Amino acid sequence: MKKTALIILLGLSLVGFSQKKDKIEPKTELEKVNLSGLKFRSIGPALTAGRIADIAVDTKNPKVYYVGVASGGVWKTSNSGNTFDPIFDNESSFSIGCISIDPNNHNTVWVGTGENNNQRSVAYGDGVYRSLDGGKSWENMGLKKSEHIGMIEIDPKNSNKIYVAAYGPLWNEGGERGLYFSENFGKDWKLILETDENTGINEVHIDPINTNIIYATAHQRRRHVFTYVGGGPGSKIYKSVDGGKNWKELKSGLPSAIKGRIGMDISPANPDYLYALVESENDQSGLYSSKDRGESWGKVNKYVTSGNYYQEVFCDPNDPKKVFFMDTWLHHTKDGGKTVVKTGEKSKHVDNHCIWINPDDTQHWIVGCDGGIYETWDHAKNWHFKPNLPITQFYKVAVDNEFPIL
Question: What are phi and psi for residue 298, nearest 5 degrees?
C-alpha cells in the first residue's frame, strides 16, 4: 500500500509539474492566431530575375517550353510564359546546365545538371535526368560524377540514341569527362570520346540530315579562387562520320595555337555551314566558318566574347548566313560573319546565354539572360520581360556588428 501511495503521489506531482510548465511557456501572440486561411504568394523579384542557362521549346506546340536556371531548377510553361511552374524542386540538384526535348516524343525531356559556365559562382550537379511525362516526374540516369553537363543531343531518327557532353568538374581534375553515348535510352552509358583528366566536352551537335555525322568541342579548363585557366592543348573540335565510333580532330584553317573554349553550331538551313567562336593564343581568337561540314575553316571576323561565361552560337533556322552570338550584349551577323553587330536590347537585361528562334517567324525569339526571360516579336525592337519567374541568385550575405537578438 505504501508503494502504491508513493507512485500515485509521484504521478500527481509530475502532472502538477507539467501544468506549471505549461503556465511558464504560454502561447505566443502568433500561435493564438489561426493562419490556416492564409497562403504565400510570390512578390518578386519583379524587376529582374536570375541567370537562365537553357531554353527548350516544344516545336509541335511552342506555347510549351522549359527553362533551365543556373541556380534555380527547371520551370515549365504551357501558355507561352503567362505562368510558370517549378518542376524540379524534388530532385537533388538545383543548378541546371542544359535541357533537351526528344524530337520524336515531346513528353520525354532530358536535363543535364550543373551549370555549363566557368565563373566562380557556378554550382555543380549530379548527372543527367529524364522525364517521360513532360516534367511531372524525373529519374536520375547517371553520370553523377560529371558535375557539369554541357549539352544533350538526341538522335532525331532514334530516341534510344543519346549523346551527352560531360564537361567534368570545374575546380579539380578527374570525374566523368568526355562524350558519353547511350543506345538504350539512357540505361547504360559508354565513353565514346575520351579526353584527359583536365578536359571535358562542352558541346555536341548532330547533323540534321545525316545523323551519323557528329561534332564535339573539347575544352580544357580549371577554376581557382585566385584565377581561371581557360585553355590548354586539350581544347579541340572533333568530327565523327560513323555515329561516334571513330573520331578525327578538325584542324584545317582553325587556330594552330593553344585554344580555349569553343562554341559552335550547324546551320539547320544548310548543314554544310558550320560556325565556331574560338578562343586562342597568338591573336588567333575569333569567328571561324566552314562551308564543307568542317573539313576546312576560315577566320571571318575578329569578334570574341568572354569565353568563360558566354561563347555559345545559334544559327538562324532558315538563313545559313545569319548567326547569333551569346555575349554581354547580344550580337548577330547577317552575312556569314563578315560583319557582326549588336542586336539591340532596349529596356532589356544584358548577359545572354541562350536563344530560341521561331522557325515559322524568325522575328520572334525567346532569350535567356542573367536577368531572366525576355521575348521579342519584332527582331529586338521591343522586348517583353517575364516578371512571373521568381528566381534569383544570391552572391553574398552580410551582417552588421550588433549583438544578435535571441
Answer: -145, 140
Number of domains in the chain: 1
Give domain status of residue 129, yes or no: yes
Distance, CA of 15 to CA of 171 (rounded, Å) = 59
Cell numbers of 346, please? Answer: 532596349
- Cell numbers standing for residue 29: 501572440
My answer on whether omega of the bond before 156 falls inside 30° of 0, hence cis, is: no
CA dihedral of 186, 188, 193, 194, whole degrees rounded to 10: 130
Q: How far apart are CA 89 and CA 99, in angstroms?
A: 16
Residue 97 to residue 203: CA distance in whole angstroms = 11
Q: Which of 156, 143, 155 is nearest to 111 (CA)?
A: 143
State the Cα–Cα distance between residues 13 and 24, nearest whole angstrom: 16
Residue 402 lies in a domain: no
Question: Can you point out the beta strands (E) in 232-285?
Answer: 236-240, 248-249, 259-266, 274-280
- Answer for the pair 114, 93: CB distance below 8 angstroms, yes or no: yes
This prediction's pTM: 0.89
| 94 Ramachandran zone, left/alpha/beta (phi>0; psi -120 to 50) | alpha
CATH number at residue 238: 2.130.10.10
DSSP class of 9: H
Q: Does residue 309 lie in a domain region?
A: yes
The mean pLDDT of the chain is 93
Given a contact cutoff of 8 angstroms between Cβ atoms, the answer to whether 166 and 113 are in contact is no
Residues shown for the chain: 406
Tally of CB atoms within 10 A around 140: 17
Which residue range forms the structural domain that includes residue 138? Answer: 52-385
Predicted confidence (pLDDT) per residue in 32-58, tens digit = 888 888 888 877 777 788 999 999 999
State the virtual CA torsion across 78, 370, 266, 76 in degrees, nearest 10: -10
Q: Report the pLDDT value the prediction gives residue 26, as an integer from 0 to 100.
A: 82
